[in-house]
Design a protein that fits this description.
With about 290 residues, this protein is of the alpha/beta class. The protein has helices at about 10-20, 80-90, 90-100, 120-130, 145-150, 180-185, 210-215, 225-230, 235-250, 265-275, and strands at about 1-10, 35-40, 55, 65-70, 75, 110-115, 135-140, 155-160, 170-175, 190-195, 220-225, 255-260, 280-285. The strands form two sheets. Strands 1, 2, 3, 4, 5, 12 and 13 form a seven-stranded mixed beta sheet that branches.
Amino acid sequence: MAVRVAYAGVQWGDVLVRDGHFAVPRPFVPGFEAAGRVVAVGEGVDPARVGEEVLALTSSGAYAEVVVAPAALAAAVGGLDLRTAAALGWTAPAAYDLVATAGRVREGESILVHAAAGGGGTLAVQFARLAGAARVVGVAGDADRTAYAKGFGYDEVLLRADLPGLDEGFDVILDPVGGPVRQAGLDMLAPHGRLVAYGNLASYEPVTASANDLLMRGTSLVTYNGNLLAATHPERLAASVREAIRAVAESRVRVDVTAEYDLADVETAVQRLADGTSRGKTVVRVP
């Protein structure tokens, strides 16, 4: 379907594509999260969807006036305004899946969340609370971000530099950082704990884990790849998008839009994310 874009979300995939970590065909229009109104549908799509306001998860093209998106991954926003819907993007369904599906968070468990002040971290703590987590600890890069993250329900937010001194085991660790942080995280799991890897913000350095060591402690290294899920099981991702939209619409979860840019300034928006100077969620307004 074709969607007339009102707002687009800024996410880490924009940085990865810009920096050449993913090969893309040229010419290429960036942007992976669009919120707007359906203006046309393709064969096999209900024509009644024309005029519907949707959040569309795309493989490209969201930073444009009109984007073509898979109908299966264009979810009705319900009562949400389009600015908020764009802020959910891929991030909100991923946060839901990290907690509910990959991490399998259970009532009474303890959770450690890296990148606690980012869009994913501020949502993950809220979904963890809804799942019944008893203790949720965040990790952030500086004092400003730790203070910001605390407003979303963390019991404690640590500076990244203080993490090595933490003597505590966690049932679930959510790690988008990678490298040495991920390696150390495996040793911070409680018996039967799960470390969920879902990105490599800081390092592509390989992580090695002994299957025998994991076996003896009952721990697991789990991965979550939203792009792969979209390609192989779009209906599962779509269900998570709907769950995320419902949670925000019912005020059980809040998404914080901390910055808004004009489309002409999208390069600045992406650079702030790459620099680590942003927090919460950034959106781009499309004229």
